[in-house]
Amino acid sequence: MSLNGTETAVVLVPTKKAKTKKLKPARKQVKPGDVERKETPQTGKEYNIWYNKWAGGDREDSYSNKIKSQTRCNVKLDSGLTRANTTGMKYCCLFFSRGCCPYGWECEYLHTLPDPSTALPDSSKDCFARDKFADYRDDMGGVGSFNRQNRTLYVGRIKETGTGLETEEVVRRHFKEFGEIEHDDSETGWAVKVLQYRSVAFVTYKSELHAQFAKEAMACQSLDNDEILNVRWATEDPNPVSKVNEKRRLEEMGQAVIREKMDPKVVDAMRTIRALEDGDVLDADGNLIENSTMDADEEEEEEDEGVDRGTKRRKLDVYEEISTPPPPEEEPPKSIGLLSADTMDSLKYFSEIRKRNGIPPPTALRAAPQKTSAGLGLGDYGSDEDN
Questions:
Q1: Is residue 60's pLDDT more than 70?
Q2: 233 pairs with which residues across the strands?
Q3: Among 53-62, 116-125, 251-260, 326-335, which is the least confidently predicted range?
Q4: What is the DSSP string of 275-309?
Q5: Which residue has the higher pLDDT, 343 or 301?
């Protein structure tokens, strides 16, 4: 109650909690019978199951044989939960990408865009569980190759109605629905290149999985001018700068995967040991501290002190030469008697060994005393006869 006698009531407004968007069950994109099956007209003598077309026909009819797709995937409307979310299936539905899956939530495959952070069980398969091959097809169609990570799509048969930048914006608007497009240093900032007056564009995604999905989703589709697109895998970029950047990107991805698998304590210990060996300084997070200004100042000080140090060292060397007398030359040991000094040292050494081993010293042999005779013997005269 307030001072003037009126009562005041406090009203608590409930705070809104952040809602987490939950996926709804996937809807059925088409009903049985909605899609009319049209067989391609026979333009050759043999049907090539590898290229999915007739062989031996006239190449001029290749464009007229392309039939525009009757369905198209709308990721926002068609994405949802399926049986694959409960069974643990990691692969996407191929017919969902084409917009013609009649099963909906009953499908055994995922009805969402592939997640680049989730590794597939088998790297030799694409995001639709189709086996890759060692080499690309001659027309760069099909599933692709497992020997190269390809994130770029070739888009042909584009009807250009404006400038190159306008066409790039149209291509990006249609292809960004199926994955995140790579950034670059171009004028638009996106990795979408259009070859003007040639009706060709190249679209590079950040993930190869998104490129695989977009290739199937945009095959035989149209942009804004009712054309029929020809979507293929792009060949390797011959630009050496792009090759170096791609190699560096793959190395960084490999290092990141290895770093995730390793124990962080072991990584921190290895960084600390390497920093101690190199004389570097690490912060609390284990990152290298770069003191460019301090290093520059230290280099200048070292350059300034270089001359003084050199002169000091010369003075010290001269002073040491003067102050320290030359070491006395050792005189060779003098020989005593007939035996040299080395021989006498060796004899003393052997005598010490005999004493330690308890061997008595050798006794000197005495010569027998000579017999003395009163007269002269025969030997004294050099004769053998007595008379």
A1: no
A2: 153
A3: 326-335
A4: HHHHT--B-TTSPBP--HHHHHHHHHHHHHHHHHH
A5: 343
Q: What is the DSSP letter of 365?
A: P
CA angle 208, 212, 217 (to 5 degrees): 140
State mean pLDDT over 245-257. 80
Cα 365 from Cα 351, distance rounded (Å): 19
What are the backbone angles phi and psi of residue 267, rounded to the nearest 5°? Answer: -65, -45
Q: What pLDDT sits at residue 61?
A: 47
Quick check: 201 and 192 in contact, CB under 8 A?
yes
Q: What is the average per-residue pLDDT within 81-106? A: 94
Most confident of 92-96, 254-258, 273-277, 284-288: 92-96
CB atoms within 10 A of CB 72: 17
With 60 as the cut, is the pLDDT of residue 280 above it? yes
Mean pLDDT of 74-87: 94
DSSP string, 94-137: HHHHHT--S-GGG-SSBBSPPPTTSPPS-TTB-TTSPBPBSS--
Helices assigned H by DSSP within 116-239: 164-175, 208-217
Q: How far is CA 38 from CA 67, 69, 157, 367, in A?
A: 9, 10, 22, 136
Region 318-329: mean pLDDT is 54
Tokens of 281: 């300084």
Give me 125's structure tokens: 């398969």
Are the CB atoms for 94 and 69 separated by under 8 Å? no
How far apart, in whole angstroms, are the C-alpha atoms of residue 268 and residue 287?
A: 10
Average pLDDT over residues 300-315: 56
pLDDT at 103: 93
Cβ-contact 205, 181 below 8 angstroms: yes
Q: Where are the alpha helices (DSSP H) in 238-291?
A: 240-261, 264-278
| C-alpha dist (Å) from residue 241 to 127, 189, 238, 244, 247 | 29, 17, 9, 5, 10
Q: For residue 137, list its beta bridge partners.
A: none
If we measure between CA atoms, which residue out of 57, 49, 51, 53 comes closest to residue 40?
A: 53
Provide the Cα torsion 27, 32, 35, 38; round to 10°: 150
- Using alpha carbons, select from 230, 165, 238 the residue that is nearest to residue 196: 165
Burial of residue 114, with CB atoms counted within 10 A of its CB: 0-12 exposed, 13-18 middle, 19 or more buried: buried
